[in-house]
Amino acid sequence: MKKKIVVLTGAGMSVESGLSTFRDAGGLWDNYPVERVATHEGWEANPDYVNDFYNMLRVKYKDVQPCEGHKLLAEMEKDYDVTIVTQNVDALHEAAGSTKVIHLHGEMMKMCSSRDVDNPRYHVSLPHEGFGETGLEVPHGEKAGDGSLLRPYIVFFGENVPNMYDAAQVAQQADIFIIIGTSLNVYPAAGLVQYVKPGTPIYLIDPKPVTAKANVTHLQCGASEGVRKVMEKI
Q1: Would residue 105 show up in a list of annotated catalytic residues for this protein?
Q2: Among the options 40, 105, 140, 218, which is catalytic?
């Protein structure tokens, strides 16, 4: 039986693909106030503004490709049972070939009902015919199958994280736990470490200094280099 590897990824995972982080200096929140584009209150106040923000992101990132780190994680499936738990809303893990991906914060390439967010019956995958030249620009006022406004399939701040239970269950099964490109300051995702069995090797890949627990091996480097180093160690 293959060993179980669980990987928690954050925005730093996709930096080498050219995607901006949200929180760091120069990140997206510097130019677009989080309360306007990533909260339920912001959506209720001006859904067109929120819609335009995510339309802009999708068009901006449509040609972005997985970095070496994404591809190495996918290659791990040859020798290990790998599940990716990601805070990222891009689809770069899937594009690289990873087959088990749990999205905690939603998916940028999906729209959903604003009344029944997590009901897959009303999800719309992008690109979609008729949504601009690229199929990625959702028109103002577009409706879901239940008649409510289509909204981005993004977990806004303050909303429940529907896949957190599944992520916690997977974390408990890990023989090796790897954290890549996340500050571990965003909850509830940061709490996943608490579900890992005692004695399980934990690797934290981040180029910045991090206050890590004694049982965590910190590799202070970028995502791709860090994944290579972990593959050499395990």
Answers
A1: yes
A2: 105
